[in-house]
Amino acid sequence: MTSSSISLLLVAAISLAAPLLYAALGETISENAGVINIQLEGMMLVGAFTGVYGAHVFHSTWLGFLCAVAGGVALAAVHGVACLVFRANQIVSGVVLNILALGATSYGLVVLLGSSAGNSVPTLARVRIPLLSSIPVIGPALFDQNVMVYVAFLLVPVVWWVLRRTGFGLALQAVGERPQAASSLGVAVARMRWLALLICGALAGLGGGQLTLAGLGAFTQNVTAGRGFIALAAVVFGGWRPWGVLGAILLFSTADAFQIRAQAFGAHIPYQFLAMLPYLVTILALAVLVRRRRAPSALGVNV
Amino acid sequence: MSRVGSGRPHGPALIALEGVTKAYPGVLACDSVDLDLRAGEVHALLGENGAGKSTLVGLLFGLQQPDSGRIRVEGAEVRVRGPRDAAALGIGFVQQHFSSIPTLTVGENLALALQGAGRPIPRRTVPARIQELSARYGLGVEPHRPVGQLSVSGQQRVELLKALAVEPRVLILDEPSSLLGPQEAEELLEILGRMAGDGLAILLISHKLEEVLRVSDRVTVLRRGRKVATVETASTSEHELGRLMVGDLATVQEAGRPAAAASPSDAPPRLSIEDLTVAGDRKADVLRGVSLSVSAGEIVGLAGLEGSGQVELIEVVAGVRTATSGRVLSGGVPMAGRSIRERQQAGIAHIPADRRNDGLVGGLSVSENLSLTELGGGKCTHFGLLRKREMTRRAQELIARYDIRVGGPAALVSTLSGGNQQKVVLARELSRDPEVILCAYPTWGLDFAATSAVHAELRRRRAEGAAVLVASVDLDELLAICDRILVMQGGRIVGEVSSSNATAEGIGRLMGGVEAA
Ligand SMILES: Nc1ncnc2c1ncn2[C@@H]1O[C@H](COP(=O)(O)OP(=O)(O)OP(=O)(O)O)[C@@H](O)[C@H]1O
Ligand SMILES: [Mg+2]
User: Fold this and answer.
1) Is B409 helix (H, G, I), strand (E, B) or coil?
2) Residue B71: its pLDDT value, please?
3) For residue A58, which phi and psi values (nearest 5 degrees)?
4) Are B49 and B420 a contacting pair, CB within 8 Å?
5) Helices within chain A (DSSP H only)
6) Top mutation candidate among B20, B30, B49, B55 for ligand 1, by most atoms within 8 Å of CB
7) Dist. CA A20–CA A249, nearest whole Å
8) Cβ contact (<8 Å) for B95 and A184?
9) H or E segment to which residue B21 belongs
10) DSSP at B501
11) Residues from chain B contacting residue A189 (CB–CB below 8 Å)
12) Of B221, B247, B273, at which residue does a domain stop?
């Protein structure tokens, strides 16, 4: 490979990572508080849809992003009512909401947006950072992307800081680890879980919006295609810590970018096999390389 | 022994409970209890398991709300809706079960507790705050270690630290010394004396009468939710307190010296342990070449400070933990490679140190917990199906026999008082008529009567030919029931004494390593 094709590969890898990163960071926060969101995929999908719809209606990409957040939060709220209020099983609720999200967005596509071809919206422009973007090989990948890509990556240290350095983060971990003890210390367990869940919904919605508003420029049926599940897995592989999650996602997105380029060049490998590659690489590498960490003790346990 | 209590004249009540009542389904945990605490006093709260002690102090700390009655602070009626209110009123609380998050460090736990109390401090200042509190009260803790890695006494110190960090005027401690060794318990009592001297009001729950007599100024006794009396410590005795708690002391057997076992030494050992080594999670090995044997009809004690390897030794024999090298033989048969279930079937019973995490399933009922070891070929299943009626019958029998204070067999284990949870574990394990009994802290949190009953039960098993291995931090307990006591220190056996000529002081010195060469 030439250095320019490596450079292109990296550009693709970084921009593919952004939507995953939003969703996975949200899920990291939520799982640290003990709430698991199998509907992460669903929240992304709803965000992807409401984002495009919002951008259409308001003729503004930024208001579109706001609608994406609202969509994710709305689905998270349904999960919260089911699990935190009515104590439904978190897994079951998550699975049902995924199905609901797929159905609702497919219907919305037909009713509100019309055909999948006809709903295109302008995508975010790239913001080129002078000097830095001219660094060979990595410059374009890191410093010539749209704003929301930068935000996604900046969110990694922010989430790390919130979890490890603030009282809010401490309380969050206490709630995910020993809810009873936390409550006896004066931590409002239910409120913390709601907050964590809604933040997760917002970020997952943003991730979905990133996919359509910054990347594809249109909504198609099931546009997320399992990315929510990849983000969910990245949280586990990343050991419930933001930097680990970032590592897992970069691995996946690099393999994904590679696979897309290989398809484009028409390598003599069946494209189904190529499409499988990123998933395979991620699972193998992480199963072999990663030092296993324990999940929060009260993950998925209603209190 | 000298009294540690401050012995100062006391002012008016700092905190008063008036006619406080709390009912749970089927039990009246507190029945119009009156209690007052004065600045500068150590006030002991006594009562049998399930008497309502933890419930009462929980009301004071706002963990539950009373059904009726009033709480007054300096005469003014208050409502304590939770830990934050309690902290604002100057109440600190060390709970019976630890309230730290094991994955967080000492410093993070302290920050969290202060935040929950509504008094957050900047994270940078936490280590300094810990240093300051440690120095003031002589509590050695390292701010940066995860709490889950500390020994039980270390965790206990963290709990105390968290309670003291809110600068309380009233400090409540629910059985703080029940897992501490004699030396550590002594240090704790001294700290409490010093704090009372500084003007704090201290409410201390304990089952150790001797400790209560030494440290307290007044004692309040609860019996089945009702207050029986409040007495001045100076004018009471162990006997009177015992009578107040139980109502009728005649039912309690005196715990005497053991009758010598029937010459166990010439019988082949029922249990032998040969050169057992267990590598530690961290640097030092947990067990380093331990060998011992227990004959049928013998009770052998394992003394040692918390963390000396006694509990780990018992866990290896029970099959919970795997040894790095060495052998365990039960009745001459090597146990290597046998599962816990197979060891149970070979007649080994295990009473684990941590009843909440290892011994019981909190979300299951008493009767289900009592049947856990009887599943699969046991009496409680029939072709794999549970025999509910048999389980209930068995549970009723055990509840009566072990005097478990509970509404009925269907009650969830998590709603039982601490001591009664311990009785459930004991009842289940001992009811299988085991030939080898392994116990770690068998009387943790048990009241006086229940402790004597457990001791009597272990002696009876010995008379029937069981081999018993007991780990305890309570030397008086070991002296009362054991034929021989092995003293452990740093994962090794450093001495053996026959209990007929041992003294607590002598063993204590061995435990601290003074005589260990
Ligand atoms: N959450 C609950 N639900 C139902 N019953 C409860 C609950 N908490 C306590 N009880 C019951 O209230 C009674 C008093 O319990 P409490 O824990 O106050 O006893 P205790 O005096 O602290 O005993 P111990 O010395 O064994 O710790 C017990 O009968 C217990 O089973
Ligand atoms: Mg109690």
Assistant:
1) coil
2) 93
3) -95, 0
4) yes
5) 3-32, 40-58, 61-80, 90-108, 139-143, 147-165, 167-177, 179-184, 189-209, 227-237, 242-264, 271-289
6) B55
7) 7
8) yes
9) strand B13-24
10) G
11) none
12) B247
Contact B311, B517 (CB under 8 A): no
Provide the token pair at A29: 């926060």
DSSP B174: E
Q: Are residues B127 and B222 in the same domain?
A: no
Phi/psi of residue B280, each to 5°? Answer: -85, 165
CB neighbour class for B403 (10 Å; exposed up to 12, middle 13-18, buried from 19): middle
> Using a 6 Å cutoff on CB, does residue B156 contact ligand 1?
no
Pick the atom of ligand 1 nearest to B420's CA: 26
Nearest-angstrom CA–CA distance, A21 and A37: 15
Q: How confident is the model at residue A186 (pLDDT cuts 50, 70, 90)?
A: confident
Interface residue of B60, B81, B100, B103 to substitute, partner A, most A CBs within 10 Å: B103
* CB A9 within 8 Å of CB A37: no
Worst-scoring range by mean pLDDT, A154-163, A207-216, A281-290?
A281-290
The range of the structural domain enclosing residue B219 comes to 1-90+170-247
Same domain, B106 and B198: no
Which value, to the nearest 10 degrees, does the dihedral of the CA atoms of residues A209, A215, A220, A225 take?
-80
Q: Are residues B455 and B479 in the same domain?
A: yes
The verdict on residue A302 lying in a domain is no
Q: How near does any CA of chain A get to the CA of B150, in Å? A: 17
Distance from CA of B87 to the nearest CA of A (A): 10
Assigned domain for B4 exists: yes
Place of tokens 């003007």: B199
- Whether residues B46 and B192 share a domain: the answer is yes
How many structural domains are present in chain A? 1
User: pLDDT digits over B421-457, tens only?
Assistant: 888 988 888 888 899 999 988 888 888 878 888 898 8
- List the single residue in A with minimal CA-CA distance to B98: A181
Pick B116's closest partner by Cβ from A165, A178, A186. Answer: A186
Judgement on whether residues B1 and B86 belong to the same structural domain of the protein: yes
Position B374 in a domain: no
Ligand 1 atom 1: residue of nearest CA: B415
Instruction: Report if residue A122 sits inside a domain.
Output: yes
At residue B514, the pLDDT reads 45
Is the residue at B429 inside a domain? no
Sign of CA dihedral B62, B65, B66, B71: positive
Query: What is the whole-number distance in angstroms between the Cα of residue B51 and the centre of ligand 1?
Result: 7
**B330 shares a domain with B439:** yes
What is the side-by-side strand order in the sheet with B298-303? Answer: B348-351, B436-440, B467-471, B298-303, B484-489, B492-498
Q: Distances from the Cα of B214 to the Cαs of A211, B7, B156, B254, B505, in angstroms? A: 71, 11, 21, 21, 18
Atom from ligand 1 closest to the CA of residue B207: 25
Q: Is residue B52 part of a domain?
A: yes
Domain finish residue from B133, B167, B201 = B167
Region A5-10 average pLDDT: 86
3-state secondary structure A238-295: CCCCHHHHHHHHHHHHHHHHHHHHHHHCCCCCCHHHHHHHHHHHHHHHHHHHCCCCCC
The interface predicted TM-score of the complex, written ipTM, equals: 0.79
For the ranges A76-80, A174-178, A261-265, B250-254, the maximum mean pLDDT occurs at A76-80
The 8-class DSSP code of residue A122 comes to P
Count of structural domains within chain B: 3
In a domain, A303, yes or no: no
Specify whether B484 is located in the same domain as B454.
Answer: yes
Say if residue B191 is in the same domain as residue B330. no
Nearest of A212, A120, A151 to residue A14 by alpha carbon: A151
CA of B449 to the centre of ligand 1 (A): 17
Size of interface A-B (CB pairs under 8 A): 57
